[in-house]
Amino acid sequence: MTEAKNFTSVKEFILLGLTSHRKTQLLLFGIILIIYLLTVLGNILIIILVKVNSNLHTPMYYFLSHLAWVDMCYVTTIMPLMLTHLLTGDGAISFAFCMVQIYIAVTLGGAEILLLGVMAYDRYLAICCPLLYPVLMDKCCQLQCSSACWVTPSLVCLIYIVCLLCQNYCGPNQINSFICEVPVVLKLACSDTRIAEAIVFVIGGLFLLVPLSILLISYGFILHSVLQMKSGGWHKAFSTCGSHLIVISMFYGPLLWVYIIPKTDSAADRDKQITIFYVLITPLLNSVVYTLRNKDFHRAVAKIL
Q: What family does this belong to (predicted)?
């Protein structure tokens, strides 16, 4: 019996989902399916418009197209399986697939965090250093920033996966969530997880707080510059940055709650409800905020039509 505990005996996890009520599950299936389709279509629209319209070949829209790719891949990693579980009422997911979902989702989430920081820095340069902006944010810099946003989290996420695979899972195997996430899977480990939890906390803290600091500092300088404007240009600056800040607050707030703030086991139900914001709502908001409220995209659509 002692030897058995040295090996992972759990072959699959059971995702409890948002609810066990069958009619509510079917209702959520319809709502989430609509959100998924709108998110994918909205982000595809952004990618196509940025690609085909020469007026959108600027650093801001270059990074926005990368953000659209991240959001589209992110929801496709999570929502189809979530929809399947809601439709069938069976939340089973294999151990291997759970690890794959964590790796892809955390990598894409990390890419979005870095992209939001880069986009804030881009807005800072455009508004506060307009004369140097073309030099500081040239094609080479854009490529380097976007590459770092994709590669860095994929490498860092390997540490998370190693921490998870080094644990023993001998039961229970029920996850009180609708997706596999590092904190909830670690809670199911039979072995001592203090070192793994410390690693996850430190890496998560650095990955969240460093870009967030860049965001706050950038927008602090932007706000200062905007308030110094005597012309009517501050209206456009506030509109652009205000939309960006809405998405950021909806994305960072829940992430900080789930990954950084210590909680008791009784907060599990609240955690999965908060997770909805950065899993379902933020990817949809990105496409809505950056297209429906953006005059450049309106002109691009009108030109294509």
A: Belongs to the G-protein coupled receptor 1 family.
Residue 4 has pLDDT above 50, yes or no: no
279 against 292, higher pLDDT: 279
Residue 6 binned pLDDT confidence (cut-offs 50, 70, 90): very low
Q: Which two tokens stand for residue 38?
A: 């709108």
**Residues 55-95 pLDDT 10s:** 888 898 899 899 999 999 999 999 999 999 998 888 889 99
- Whole-number Å distance between alpha carbons of 266 and 2: 30
Cβ neighbourhood burial of 91 (10 Å; 0-12, 13-18, 19+): buried
Tell me the three state secondary structure of residue 215: helix
258 — pLDDT class (breaks 50, 70, 90): confident
Query: What is the rounded CA–CA span in Å between residue 251 and residue 278?
Result: 5
Q: Using an 8 Å Cβ cutoff, are 269 and 248 in contact?
A: no
Token readout for 262 is 């210590």
Strand partners, 92: 14
CA pair distance 30, 87, nearest whole angstrom: 9
Q: Would you call 7 helix, strand, or coil by DSSP?
A: coil
Tell whether omega for the bond before 172 is within 30 degrees of 0, i.e. cis. yes
Backbone angles phi, psi at 23, to 5 degrees: -65, -35
Contacts of 100 (CB under 8 A, 6+ apart): none
